[in-house]
Amino acid sequence: MQDQISVIIPCYNDGKYIQETIDRLKQQTLAASEIIVVNDGSTDEYTLTVLENIDKEPLVKVLHKENGRMSAARNYGVKHATGNIIVTLDADDYFDKSFFQKGVDILDKEPTTGVVTSYIQYFGNKTDKSRPRGGNAFNFLFSNQCSACAMIRREAWDQVDGYDESMTLGYEDWEFYIRITKANWQVHLIPEYLLFYRQTDKSTLKNQTH
Q1: CATH code assigned at 185
Q2: Which of 53, 114, 133, 165 is the most buried (most CB within 10 A)?
Q3: Per the domain annotation, does 148 fall within a domain?
């Protein structure tokens, strides 16, 4: 069976960035099968207009839900996804165009790998770099340097039932990775800066209630 990639993007008043994020996704050397944007109760008229327009683009589907946390929006998107590979991405971030191909190659070669992610390049208000740790549960117990933007095997996602929507204060990504690794899935960290994470005044709220 050919791999099918479903990209899930929560969006709350991110009209300024979401079009760029969609455009960059379409530049991936391995194309996604679908791009699901979850409108998490946006109130900004500009964002709503942008979402209406991108909903008409090929491969893009915009879903609407009441406002909640990022974890709930990701879970909602995955429930409507058809792919056997899930890619989670924030509305103002992007991957290097080679990430999908490199990630799928790893998942195909490593049956015990449940998640593929990479080093992080920050841009915007802050320009810095991060080298999170991958591997097993032991590593994640002592490090919260994990990104919510990653490629996830659907089987692994379903096994742990996605994100715990009761988690708050930005710990839901860390808790998700611990459950993934405790279920005997490995997290493969590509030692390249393939995730570009935008730093804005809103960035500290990404994983909290909007």
Answers
A1: 3.90.550.10
A2: 114
A3: yes
User: Is position 210 within any domain?
Assistant: no
Cα–Cα distance measured from residue 186 to residue 114, given in angstroms and rounded to the nearest whole number:
6
- For residue 40, being part of any structural domain is answered with yes
- Domain count along the chain: 1
Q: Where are the beta strands (DSSP E) in the chain?
A: 5-11, 34-40, 60-65, 85-88, 94-95, 113-124, 129-130, 150-153, 186-199
By residue range, what is the domain housing residue 123?
5-205
State the pLDDT at residue 179: 92
Angle at CA 52, nearest 5°, toward 46 and 57? Answer: 125
**SS3 at position 99:** helix
Q: What is the pLDDT of residue 125?
A: 67
For residue range 139-190, what is the model confidence (pLDDT) as tens digits? Answer: 554 455 667 899 999 999 999 999 999 887 677 888 898 899 899 999 999 9
